[in-house]
Fold:
Amino acid sequence: MIKTLAKSIREYRKDAVLTPLFMVGEVSMECIIPLVMASLIDHMSSENMTDLLRYGAILLCMALFSLFCGIMSGRFAASASAGFAANLRHDIFYRVQDFSFSDVDRFSTSSLITRMTTDVTNVQMSFMMIIRTAVRSPLMLIFSVIMSFRINPGVAVVFLAVVPVLGLGLYLIASHAFPIFKRIFKRYDAMNNSVQENVNGIRVVKSFVREGYETERFEKTSGEVKKDFRFVERILALNGPLMMFCGYGAMLFICYIGARIIISSGATEMTPGQLSSFMTYAIQILMSMMMLSMIVVTCAISFESAKRIVEVLNTQSTLKSPENGISDVKDGSIDFDNVSVRYNGQSGRDALKDIDLHIESGKTIGIIGSTGSSKTTLIQLIPRLYDTTAGTVRVGGKDVREYDLDALRKQISVVLQKNVLFSGTVKDNIRWGREDATDQEIEQVCRIACAHEFITQMPEGYNSKIERGGTNVSGGQKQRLCIARALIAKPRVLILDDSTSAVDTKTDAMIRKGLKEYLPGTTKIIIAQRVASVQDADEIIVMDNGSIAERGSHQSLIALRGIYYEVWESQTHMKEEA
Amino acid sequence: MSGPRNRMQLDRKGGLKPQINKGTFKRILGYVWREYKKQMLLVTFCIIAGSLASLVATVSLRRLIDNVIVPGLNTGLQGVWHDLTGILITMAAFFAAAIIANLIRGLTMAEVTQGTLMHLRNDMFSKMETLPIKYFDVNQHGEIMSTYTNDTDSVRELVGRCIPSLIESALSIISVFAMMLVYSVWLTLAVVIGLFFIVRLSASVAGKSGKYMAGQQRSLAAEEGFVEEMMEGQRVVKVFCHQDRAKEDFDRLNAQLCSDGTRATRFGNILGPINNNMGNILYVLIALLGTLLVYFNVTNIGLGGMGTISTGIIVSFLSMSKSMTQVIGNLSMQVNMFTMGLAGASRIFTLIDQENEQDRGYVTLVNVEHDSEGNIVESPKQTGEWAFRHPHTADGSVTYTPLRGDIYMEHVDFGYTEEKQVLFDMSLYAKPGQKIAFVGATGAGKTTITNLLNRFYDIADGKIRYDGINITKIKKPDLRRSLGIVLQDVNLFTGTVLENIRYGRLDATDEQCIAAAKLANADSFISRLPEGYNTVLRGNGSSLSQGQRQLISIARAAVANPPVLIMDEATSSIDTRTEAIVQKGMDNLMKGRTVFVIAHRLSTIRNSNAIMVLDHGRIIERGTHEQLLELKGTYWQLYTGAFELS
Structure:
């Protein structure tokens, strides 16, 4: 895991290495300064001012050097951690861009977003902590212990006694608090979830007059959350007294032993100044222990985040564009040769079973079928959004796996069922289909998609802003813009996956007529719920449960009296009656 | 735990600064104080005890050196043994007290912090439940949510860490300062001058850090927005081979975030070393000054009296000045946390200060029964019969109007804002048991009508009557209880299927809930769920299909059994078979009730008693299906497919 993450440090390696180096400088100064201070104190009482001044000057220089190192280390730490985080985000984003559809399915959209934001921030925090404090604290600890031993090993032994006590105490606290933390956050999430449900469902709450009921329920949950958090905070609150116990205990011991040694040796083995620096070391050792325990906590929290990031970084796209793939799609003919698709490897059921289908270039094909009949799965194989489990899909006579992926997709336009527009102008959105499209071309496709009229009615026409997700246009308008966006590419194959469900039947018919005229040579595949949308296609395919149940022209399918007939009848029923 | 990503408010110019309302700090203190007087006093006492102990440690060290070690060098250990143990025992006692104080402080603060958060959350939530629908329409749901998460988090830091450490710092500054004065006025003066420069310096660094922090938040928000959009549209990105463009745009935003992030952390990082080493420098200067005072034998003035400066005094002084700089350093490190906390508290209080939904109704819905003479009388029992209880202030009499479901709207005008009217002179009449349908394009005002019936919004002009009573006179909860509603966007709550159905009437038995599910045509799919009616639904029933969720919401309305029903049909495309099942459930529910249907498919409303065709807030056609077809107007055009509905 660490190896994978470390790859993202790259150009910030220098900064990441310099941070602890300067930190060594700062820490050594911090450790030596009390020593010099002790000498300074010892020279204070002497009549010789020059010594004092000399020590003062040394101290000043040391403080300045320590300041310099500290600032440098802080700066490098900042650039290293921010840079590392930027690289991580970069790597995740690039990786996701190369994902196949099934990879995107595997990670949900919201989890990918969390990974790129919260998780990266967590890892960034720990990274900075590691390059700064993980060097600082142990160094401090070791320095302080060594120094105190140099002053007087007999007194310094007390630290060796304190360290295990403290370590054990911290370990006990942490090991008790952590499992509870995990449980608590679940409850905390549940509480926030109920807030979310109330915010989103406020109309339901108010319609059923459940304000009091919800408040009561919420107060119960929030009371439980409070109790849980209070409990865990109280466990963590033992930290302070433990530290103090060890620290004060050590101080008492040092005072006692120190005083005895100084007096009995006549201040030869130890001086009063050294006694006070001993105190300083005691505090320093405590501090570094505290910092170390904090590092452990932070790293433990971000461990989960790091795991989630690595999971993305280690995902190899299940779809690879072949090297030197074919870049030109000859024509719009499509062949499915005994194609089967199974999700989730071997265990799942077949989404598509043994499909054999051959479509001539330039034809219009209608596909109809109930939810779950795998219509969408079928057409997503054509631009190789997924790979087949068995069998081959050929476009223009060549296996789709032989094409360069971008080249193939550029010549097969799909209007997805769950389609989105992006923030930007209407024009920007249409140009997604082809970046160098002229204004005239854009207008032309918008006319064909019956979008021109409402676009010109928008305040700024083609330069009107579309909000993120296309929330400021209606469902029918959104669908028409998405169709226009697909048309601008002048593809060999055009696939409309239930793309006119919110468009009225008359406009729907006009769009289909326009398509015929604008893209005569393009193979058109239309998935729809409405029979009217597909009935004039060259061939209609009725999907049921992953296989082709019926196929043929409108007339022949009506004559068949099967599923198609049933759907057709239920939809035309009311008209006949009227 | 989204601590580091604390949110800041974007102001109109795109500038970013934490919005802190006046008096927020006082108010949050008051909040803590109101609930936890005793605890806060206890904590303050513990803090005093703690500071006292650390003070004693410094004093004791001086006494140890001056009174024990120095004389001990002459007299030997025996001579000072008594003093030595005396000092050590005093120290030990104070230390023990400090440890206990710290323990009590930690345990108490856990209660104070979490308790305050709980009270804040409860106040927010119960307030939120009483807010008018308008609040939820105007404010983004994400914003409301983050008041509960991010803002509450930052208040936890404020209450749990900033407030105690403010108290602690203030106390230790005061006490150390007092001690210093006792020892030596001259040296104190020097420390004060030195501290003045340190404070100035670290304030300016902390200020810079805050400024860049805001910049970092801004570019973080920009990048997150971009990432969200691209992740949500990831399939479209791939279909159009837009990956390279997306990468380019991302890199630009990422570089910006990186440089802002670097600057923001840099100032945070260097604050520590600066404070630390300035403290060291001050230490040296004080030492030199002290020695000079000793050297030139300057008369020391202290509150403790006049005399000469001893080495012990200087040693103690040095450690006091060190702890002073440490306090200042800690404070400056907390400036950002403090600002964030106050900004969070401001937003929480803004929510709590919102105005409640107003209700001046006095007509209530009560259970009734018929007495021997056939008069309607109020009954304390569940009779299954309801009536509006209407007290008349003029003569003090009370009349009972049986609940029938008769709706009358006359000349209603309405606009969500004063500038833009959306309904014009709307009049309609629905007798009990009738079905009224609304059709029209998006924005024609269909949903608005239903918002008015249950008084989610109040009308500007005109009247709406329910069983002859002006609905403004009816208490809102009672009015809403008499209206059932099935919305197009189904909202289910975390809990079992059964609990979700029971939401309609909390005292419904299991049998009644299952009967309602059967009526709604939902029983067959529910019994096929892994745990049947006890299957737990999460995330708004995300494990169910759109159609199934609708069936549950129909069952929920069925169990409430209201005389009037508002049904907003779903717009999303469900396949023909499921649609037929949902339709059958709706038909069952509508039997015998007054129903308002907002139609997105014409097939479902042909049997309505009246169809209202809306356009830009006006009824342009009304009549039965046959009448409207004969008219050959808008309805006819819709019917033949010349206009789109949704």
About this structure: Chain A touches chain B through 161 residues (CB under 8 Å).
